[in-house]
Amino acid sequence: MSRAALPRRRGAFTLIEIMIAITLFALVIAAMYSSWWAIVRATRTGQTAAAEAQRSRIALRTVVQALTGVQMYLPNIRFYSFDVDTSSDFAALSLVSRLPESFPGSGVFGDHYLRRVTFTVEPDKDGTNQLVMRQMPLLEATNTDQEPYAIVLARDVNVFMLEFWDSVRNDWGTDWLLTNRLPYMVRVTLATGGPHGKIQAEDIATREIVLTAIPIPLQYQIVGGPMPFPPGGPFPGGQPFSPVAPGQPGYPGQPFNSMQPVAPAPYAPAFAPNGQ
Fold it and tell me: What pLDDT score was predicted for residue 217?
């Protein structure tokens, strides 16, 4: 038989070779999907952490703004009281403040800049804690049934603590029982995130606020009554009126250190708690 008469063999893949190729292709696809899913999860986790950090900063800034604009008028102390509750795991704060237009919720109240603001930590539906701010105009008709406007400032709150500078002990304390007096320095600590109560150092944010406002006694509001100092001077002791005691940092002629607490000058007779 001649060579030309022999049947020509054709190249082809066997079933085993095809199965091996499909298996290798599936492994490559699985590896690509795993890498893609890891990138998606990392991106999602990073975005969530960034959003929580931003929300925490906004919440802390809101508390600082409310404390910075605090107001108190002693004759109507039942409306202007400075209420603090630190007896539970989370602090609660209620005060009257003159708030800027950039304050969260200002668009709801129009030109009612003087409002009572309350900060409390309350449980959410999923069992976590959230920092809730409620506010109401101070000059509101007494016959209305309007509910306070509530905003959730921060979620998954682990720490919300208030401390007040004690000029007698020269140290921070968590108790403030004088509802008709204002502290002159407040420290706010807020921590969010951290599963199962595990708090990292980077999750804790602290701010120290010096309150520049003082309670206004009745005699300073009466036309023709005594004033803190004569209009245009001369000032008592030859110095402008200052809420800081003479000789303390921040008094005219004295160096001022913002990190060093100062003693307020006597501006009104001492009041006992609850206005008694």
Answer: 77
Whether 136 is in a domain gets the answer yes
Q: What are 165's two structure tokens?
A: 């500078």
Q: What is the pLDDT of residue 9?
A: 60
98 domain residue, yes or no? yes
Tokens of 130: 């959230």
Tell me which H or E stretch contains 41: helix 15-68
Q: Is residue 112 part of a domain?
A: yes
Does residue 168 lie in a domain region? yes
Q: Which residue type sits at 204?
A: I
pLDDT at 160 over 90: yes
What are the strands of the beta sheet with 171-173, ordered from one edge? Answer: 171-173, 157-166, 185-192, 204-210
Q: What is the spatial distance between Cα 188 and Cα 193, in angstroms, rounded to a whole number?
A: 17
Q: What percent of the chain has pLDDT over 90?
A: 25
Q: Name which of 238, 193, 246, 184 is nearest 215 in CA terms.
A: 184
CA distance 188 to 153: 15
The domain of 83 spans 61-210
Count how many domains the chain has: 1
pLDDT at 148 (0 to 100): 87
